[in-house]
Amino acid sequence: MRTVIVTGGTKGIGLSIVKTFLAEGDAVYAVYNSDEGAADKLREAGYENLTVRRCGVSRFDEVEALYNDVYRERGAIDVSVHSAGVEISKLLAMITPEEWDRIISVNLNGVYNCCRCAVKKMLSKENGRIINISSAAATFPLSGQAAYAASKAGVNALTKALAKETARFGITVNAVAPGYTTGEMADKYYDKMVDKIPMKRFAEPQETAALVKFLASGDAGYITGAVYAIDGGLGV
């Protein structure tokens, strides 16, 4: 039984990832920040081997406490998936410094905080899987996505650099970059974007979860530093 941490794990893509690892028989920690309703709903679902924990990924002290607690409880952290994210769609000239800072703090600094803590726990075992959830917007942003795209492009670069640092220790680091995926964050773009996608539909969260499952598996042991697009051909 592996120990898996999934940030942003109570909604959307993160929730699908949590359910996928639970189906594999893993012990999963689903991490959320503020949506108590979604957290309670997941707790009440009665999944075995599931722990739902609150943690603000942009605050290093909270992230460090989370990883310390999980390591103390389980003796290892085998897989760390970083799916927590926020989006504010505004033209660069209109976005406030506070809004910019929030996006960078959650989407990029949050990934740094989790990666740093995960690596420190995985080093002792010389084994581990780190998977960062990026976005097609890192490469193909829409107007109004400057802050979001910058944060996700940073995630891609961080992923590649960290992969080089950890490869000799048996730790792989990869990113998954979903395109438009059904759910509250992307549904507002459906009418504008669906005809621009070669497959003429948005992804389902489970499709990203399946790729994450593969990257966390033994079959992906020689894959590191990759950023996988799962966008229905949007980037072709």
Summary tags:
alpha/beta; 7 helices; 42% helix; 7-stranded parallel β-sheet; 236 residues; Rossmann fold
Distance between the termini: 38 Å
Return the domain count.
1
Gyration radius, in Å: 17 Å
The major beta sheet can be summarized as:
7 strands, parallel
Figure out the total of helices.
Answer: 7
CATH architecture: 3-Layer(aba) Sandwich
Structural class: alpha/beta
What is the name of the CATH topology?
A: Rossmann fold
Please list the strands of the largest sheet in the order they lie side by side: 3-2-1-4-5-6-7
What is the helix fraction of residues, given as a range?
40-55%
Average pLDDT metric: 95
What would you call the shape?
Answer: globular
Strand portion: 15-25%
Order of helices and strands: EHEHEHEHEHEHHE
Poorly predicted sequence stretches spanning 5 or more consecutive residues = none
Provide the CATH superfamily: NAD(P)-binding Rossmann-like Domain
Summarize it:
With 236 residues, the protein is of the alpha/beta class. The protein has seven helices and seven strands.
